[in-house]
Every structure is written in structure tokens, then in C-alpha cells.
Design a protein that fits this description.
The chain has a domain of 182 residues: Vaccinia Virus protein VP39 (Rossmann fold, 3-Layer(aba) Sandwich), CATH 3.40.50.150. It is 36% helix and 22% strand. It has 10 helices and 7 strands. A 7-stranded mixed sheet has the order 3-2-1-4-5-7-6, sandwiched between helices. β4, α6 and β5 form a beta-alpha-beta unit.
């Protein structure tokens, strides 16, 4: 058994439960979404079809709708509770932007119920870290994207919550946090999946808290539970929790406990195939002079 394999049923339940109050607490997630939207300013692409992977309560979906008012947008999320909140929020927004074409789809990005070569842009803000097989996920996204289509995303990197990971170390024999992919490995995965010209960037955002319980409550409130196969089967004991708090206290700076998030941004394009399935070369004749 892979101790870091993510239980998708647990993920689905956790995010559905957190959906109603998600927007009130997901400050960092919205900030990353805003920064990812800003990266679109430098990309000349006007998609007619757009897939928002991990759309959550739909805040990012609505920003994309304003940016691409003619696009047909599919808001996809694994948690039905998130989509229910998104649909309720979108009712007033759809009246404001009459004629907006928006669809909601409850599905797992690792097995997309979407036709091949049908999407011109895939957008994903802080969702891909919940995938068990990231290389296969990129291959699945490459499958549904049209030639010359764009994939743009953000995800968590290996240094995310390293303070909390350190505090839990040697406390017991269970996993308490997910394992995140390295930025350079993600770039290699994109190339292996058939994407071209991947551009990768990384930054760190540090939030501060008064105590360890506040850190854990913040994660719980946005549905970011530990869903790995190697998690503890029950509640942590009082003595173990005391050790966690003592370990984290050693990291206090200027009266606050830091919680660092390594944010990875990436985008890449789907190039035209160079040969047919039977090995014959393809020569493009649609170049613009």
C-alpha cells in the first residue's frame, strides 16, 4: 500500500462539508487565484471552451467568465457540495452577465468524462495536489485539450507546511500531511505528457498564527484534511498532541507561528502532432505569413 495515496472519498466529503463557509476562510487560496489570473495578462489566448478544474465555490470561475465573456465554461469539482454553492452563487452573476454559458460537472480530474480535443483552455487553481498520479493526470488533461490549447495551473510544492510537517515528525508512525511534487519534476511531467514550452514559477507565501490549533482549524475550515492512506485511524492522543505543540512552539517568530505555502505556477501548450498513429509525418500548411 502507498501510504501517501489520497482517499478521494475522504477528499470529496471534506470539501463538501467545508463548502458553505469556504469563501470566508480561504484567504490564501483566493490570493493565489488572483495571482494566477494576472499571469493571463501576458498570454494571448481567447478560448471558446474553458475547463476550470477544481472550481470549488466558483469564485475563480466567475473571474474567468468576466475575462472571457464569450467562452463556454465547465466548472469541474470532485465535491458536489462545492458545486452546489457555486451554482447558488452563480444565479445572480448569470443575470448580470446575460447569455453566459456555464456548466457544472462533478468529476475527478484523473478520469475526465470529457471528449478528446474539445477544450481550448484548462485552468486549475490549487487542485492538482489532490491527484494520486500526477503524470497520468497531465496526460488526461492533454487528451481533452485541443491542438494549440493552453493548460495553466497552480499547485502546492514540496516545502508547503514544512513547519507543521516538522512538528509532527517522530510524534507517531502515521502520516499527517500529503506529499507534494517538486516544481522541476512537474515540468518534466508536462513534457512527458506531450505538452510543449512549459513555463514554471515558484513563490512562497507565509501565513502567521497565534497557536497550533489556529493553524489546524484554518486547514480544516477549507476542507484540507489529511486524506492519505497512512493517516491515523482515530484522534491523536493528548500526549502526542502536546509534543506537536511543543515542537511547533520552537518555530515561533516575533510572537507568531509561521505556516509556509510553496506555490507552483505553470503553463504549457498542446502542440500539433508530428506524425500520425501509423508513423507518417504530418506537415502543417496553415502558417500565417
Amino acid at each position: 500500500m502507498n501510504e501517501f495515496e489520497i482517499d478521494k472519498r475522504q477528499v470529496r466529503r471534506a470539501f463538501s462539508r467545508a463548502a458553505k463557509n469556504y469563501d470566508a476562510t480561504a484567504v490564501m487560496q483566493r490570493e493565489v487565484c488572483t495571482r494566477l489570473l494576472e499571469k493571463l495578462d501576458c498570454i494571448k489566448h481567447q478560448p471558446a471552451t474553458l475547463l476550470d478544474v477544481g472550481s470549488g465555490t466558483g469564485w475563480g470561475t466567475r473571474q474567468l467568465g468576466e475575462r472571457y465573456p464569450q467562452a463556454q465554461i465547465i466548472a469541474l469539482d470532485i465535491a458536489i457540495g462545492m458545486l452546489q454553492v457555486a451554482r447558488g452563487t452563480s444565479s445572480w452573476w448569470q443575470k448580470l452577465f446575460a447569455g453566459k454559458r456555464e456548466n457544472f460537472l462533478c468529476a475527478d480530474v484523473e478520469a475526465l468524462p470529457i471528449a478528446s480535443n474539445s477544450i481550448e483552455m484548462v485552468w486549475s487553481n490549487l487542485a492538482l495536489q489532490w491527484c494520486n498520479d500526477l503524470p497520468a493526470t497531465f496526460a488526461e488533461l492533454q487528451r481533452v485539450i485541443k491542438v494549440d490549447g493552453l493548460l495553466i495551473f497552480s499547485s502546492f510544492g514540496v516545502d508547503t507546511l514544512h513547519e507543521l510537517r516538522s512538528a509532527f515528525r517522530d510524534v507517531d508512525g502515521y502520516n499527517h500531511l500529503s506529499r507534494f511534487a517538486d516544481m522541476h519534476d512537474i515540468g518534466d511531467m508536462l513534457l512527458a505528457a506531450g505538452f510543449a514550452g512549459p513555463v514554471m514559477e515558484m513563490e512562497k507565501i507565509t501565513l502567521t498564527y497565534s497557536d497550533v490549533r489556529a493553524v489546524m482549524q484554518d486547514l480544516k475550515s477549507i476542507g484540507a484534511h489529511n486524506a492519505t492512506a497512512g493517516r491515523a485511524p482515530g484522534m491523536m492522543g493528548k500526549a502526542a498532541w502536546q509534543r506537536v505543540m511543543e515542537n511547533y512552539e520552537k518555530l515561533r517568530v516575533d510572537g507568531k507561528l509561521p505556516a509556509t505555502f510553496e506555490i507552483i505556477y505553470g503553463h504549457a501548450w498542446k502542440p500539433a502532432p508530428k506524425q500520425t498513429q501509423d508513423g507518417r509525418a504530418i506537415i502543417r500548411t496553415d502558417f500565417k505569413l
